[in-house]
Amino acid sequence: MAAEKSPIKVCITGGAGQIAYSLLLEVASGKVFGQDQPVILHLLDIEPCLEKLNGVVMELEDLALSLVRGVVATADPLKAFADVDVALLLGAFPRLKGMERKDLLAKNNDIFRTTGKAIDQVAKKSVKVVVVGNPCNTNALTCMKNAPSIPKENFTCLTRLDQNRAKSQLAAKLGVSVSQISNVIIWGNHSGTQFPDARHASVTINGARQSLTDALSDDAWVKSDFISTVQQRGAAVIKARGLSSAMSAAKAIGDHARDWWFGTKEGEFTSMGVISDGSYNIPAGIIYSFPVTIEAGGKWSIVQNLKQDDFATEKMVATYNELQEEANAAAELAAAAN
Ligand SMILES: NC(=O)c1ccc[n+]([C@@H]2O[C@H](COP(=O)([O-])OP(=O)(O)OC[C@H]3O[C@@H](n4cnc5c(N)ncnc54)[C@H](O)[C@@H]3O)[C@@H](O)[C@H]2O)c1
Ligand SMILES: O=C(O)C[C@H](O)C(=O)O
Which range of residues forms the domain containing residue 13? Predict the structure, then answer.
């Protein structure tokens, strides 16, 4: 019989919040890091939410899951990030009706300065960080800048929810299952300027893989309604539920973390917010969502040489410009805090 794997430590911040409530079962039941991978869960929330967090811990015990080898619940970031392998950063204020995600910048930016410093001090140097709290691209940049001892490549932000939304819209339009669609891209910011791009996607019909846009043959829809529906989906959910998306966000975080842990499938790529390196003429140094392939173990590479046209370039630059504005605002907040 193969020896049992040692447990990995997974920190989830905002542990008492609504996304964590769905995400914990995904992680604790082995759906993310594997059915043979024991986990020790580190849950961080703020002092006033510790009683609520304790209720979550009770429920985790009551799940009676064999992969869970310990739970640490705390309001102390230095305990929460101690020696962790993975940090899923949800702890932040969510957007309310009528707000843009960038309105959250001032409210949430200091959380990610503190978080970055704690990760720098006590997490494993190989820690994989997924920033979910909005505005997630710029919060990931803030976190990265405050953790200089950790490689920049270890900081990512979540655009998988946008990718899942895009895939689902395309599958419905084509009348196929989402499992038949691959290589949909989200470029740029997790915001209303993001560029959901179906032009490099494939659909497999009766075993034959083909260009999705050829199969769909509706360029006008791909360039207009498809893009705006995905860009505005977060706001539409808030309007309908009175709360920001949680179940779908948790599923997307699990998808992102699983692909980062195990790697992407041969011939497929996925989108995540990663540090830009000049690819596709996006200046280096911001967290921008690109298509990436990932090797088992976690080394990701930006997919190169995807053909761009004027339409795509304009959209990719617009979302970059917004990210650069956010990065400038975050730098001003950091300077004022020092
Ligand atoms: N990137 C995405 O695709 C995506 C999708 C959905 C939601 N979000 C964002 O995720 C974040 C969390 O959403 P939610 O619905 O779970 O919100 P929520 O309000 O239900 O939960 C957030 C939790 O974070 C805690 N928290 C606040 N400050 C903290 C700190 N300094 N340290 C640790 N915990 C802290 C709060 O006490 C709360 O329990 C929001 O910013 C939301 O906008 C992002
Ligand atoms: O839109 C929001 O503010 C929440 C989240 O980022 C989402 O996309 O659902």
Answer: 8-157
